[in-house]
């Protein structure tokens, strides 16, 4: 039976590390070569979203698209306000507004 010395273990460990480095380096180079030759196209469709909250006669609109707010007065009048993408647009409702709607436009 042959005894293994500390020096022998270190030599074997260095050889193993060198072989792993060669294999990993080759794999990374091959992956990089494939990445240069390939094109990727990604298409994403984002649905239009409009949200509104009301506090003290003020409507706050948040939307990722164009939108319209229609305020309907008790006398039959309609006040229309339009806007675009927003993280929070505040709109004061006209006096006498009974109902209102906020819808996506376009």
Give a brief rundown of this model.
With 106 residues, the protein is α+β, with helices and mostly antiparallel strands. Helix content is 30%, strand content 38%. The strands form two sheets. A three-stranded antiparallel β-sheet has the order 1-2-5, with no helix packed on it. Strands 4-3-6 form a three-stranded antiparallel β-sheet, with no helix packed on it.
Number of helices: 1
Specify Rg, calculated over alpha carbons.
33 Å
Sum up the overall morphology in one term.
Answer: rod-shaped
Query: What fraction, in percent, of the residue positions are helical?
Result: 25-40%
Unreliable stretches: none
Helix-strand string: HEEEEEE
The largest pleated sheet is described as: 3 strands, antiparallel
Structure description:
The chain is an alpha+beta fold and 106 residues long. It has one helix and six strands. The chain has a three-stranded antiparallel beta sheet with strand order 1-2-5, with no helix packed on it. The protein has a three-stranded antiparallel beta sheet with strand order 4-3-6, with no helix packed on it. The longest helix is centred in the first third of the chain and has 32 residues, at 6-37. The radius of gyration is 33 Å and the shape is rod-shaped.
Question: What tags apply to this protein structure?
Answer:
106 residues, three-stranded antiparallel beta sheet, 1 helix
Helix-strand blueprint:
Elements: H1 6-37, E1 50-55, E2 58-63, E3 67-73, E4 78-83, E5 86-92, E6 97-104
Antiparallel strand pairs: 1-2, 2-5, 3-4, 3-6
